[in-house]
Amino acid sequence: MYESLMTIVERPPQLFVRGKGSWLWDDSDKCYLDFIQGWAVNCLGHCPKIITEKLQDQSSRLISPSPAFYNEPSIKLAELIVVNSSFDKVFFSNSGAEANEGAIKLARKWGSKHKDGAYEIVTFHNSFHGRTLATMSASGKPQFNDLFEPKVKGFSKAFLNDIESVKRYVNDKTVAVMVEPIQGEAGVIVAENSFMRELRDYTKSHNILLIVDEIQTGVGRTGKMWGYEWAGIEPDIMTLGKMLGGGVPLSALVATDEASCFDYGDQGGTYNGNPLMTAVGLGIIETVISKGFLTNVLESGKTLETGLKNLSKTYDLGEVRGRGLLLAFDLNQDIATKIVKTAFENGLLINAPRPNLLRFMPALNVTRDEITAMLERLEKVLVAVLSDQS
Ligand SMILES: *Cc1c(COP(=O)(O)O)cnc(C)c1O
């Protein structure tokens, strides 16, 4: 196909040209119902008015004053995140990996200042934290194991929902534990509330920072503003990405006053906190915190969950799990790739993070009618693929 693009992933040949809400069109004008949404990114769907307006308005006034000067949208967005979370300070960046890279740096800095040079971070098997060298090293994705050696040192992998496995890796050199409230890429594995609380108690009593990677769970995805709220805990550091920009490149490293210990020159970046992207982030957060928005996410999530559970029952398939509008459907057999492909042909975009598993990450403002339409299309595809199997 397009020979000048570097090969990184197998893509379908279609060229995508426009989107509106939950719908995406290719250049033959075929229309797709989109439950991938840019990989859990477009929280208000494709090209929502708020983003188009913010981009138009801000781009006509100021795009890049310099990361070393103040600008209004970044200040307002940081304030909004702080007021609506348990944190005090924000550093904006451009991708999830970059935010996590920043979290790792901040933890190491804190270790050098406050914990005798401690630098090790306990992460988890099957976790995903990004594709820079350090974040790949932090990730517990088996496919990363032998890639780009040597890895960045200082990460050990415990098991999610197993506090004893965390304790086994903690020593004098441990500065932080980094965890996803829901392991998205691993197949929507929820960190139990009791585990998150044990983790918080244990790290606090051992003077270790707790970092939550909320790049997939933050900004309303689970039906609460931040995923950590489900466990009623207050972490030391949080990273945001994906939905924070609603489709534009924006991420954030968020921390408590105690954890925010960078000195001048430790952290930065050319585009970091630029007003064009932070103006969009402001529009997103204002929308997600507006009255009734998260209640609606929870209700839509329930509708989708119930529909998927009905399909599971009808066709004798597996578990439906997740929170809010981050849900997975276990098919109990390795047909997920086939289903994704057949669904694509039939104008439905869904994702298979595992050979036996479908993942759903629609826009947070997806309508009940769109959920119903998705379930109808999925059922047709399921019937076709299952009858093909037998
Ligand atoms: C997507 C994701 C990342 C990486 O974000 P990028 O913007 O692709 O760098 C990191 N952590 C989690 C939990 C993610 O879902």
Q: What percentage of amino acids are in beta strands?
A: 15-25%
The global form is: globular
Helix/strand-derived category reads alpha/beta
As a whole number of angstroms, the C-alpha radius of gyration is: 21 Å
Helices, by number, come to 11
In the predicted model, the low-confidence regions spanning at least 5 consecutive residues are none
Q: If strands are numbered along the chain, what order do they take across the biggest sheet?
A: 4-12-11-10-7-5-6
Average per-residue pLDDT, rounded, comes to 97
- Could you tell me the number of beta strands? 17
Largest sheet: 7 strands, mixed
What percentage of residues falls in helices of 4 or more residues? 25-40%
Give a short summary of the structure.
The chain is α/β, with parallel strands linked by helices and 390 residues long. The protein is built from eleven helices and 17 strands. The strands form four sheets. Strands 4-12-11-10-7-5-6 form a seven-stranded mixed β-sheet, sandwiched between helices. A four-stranded mixed β-sheet has the order 1-2-3-15. Strands 13-14-17-16 form a four-stranded antiparallel β-sheet, covered by helices on one side.
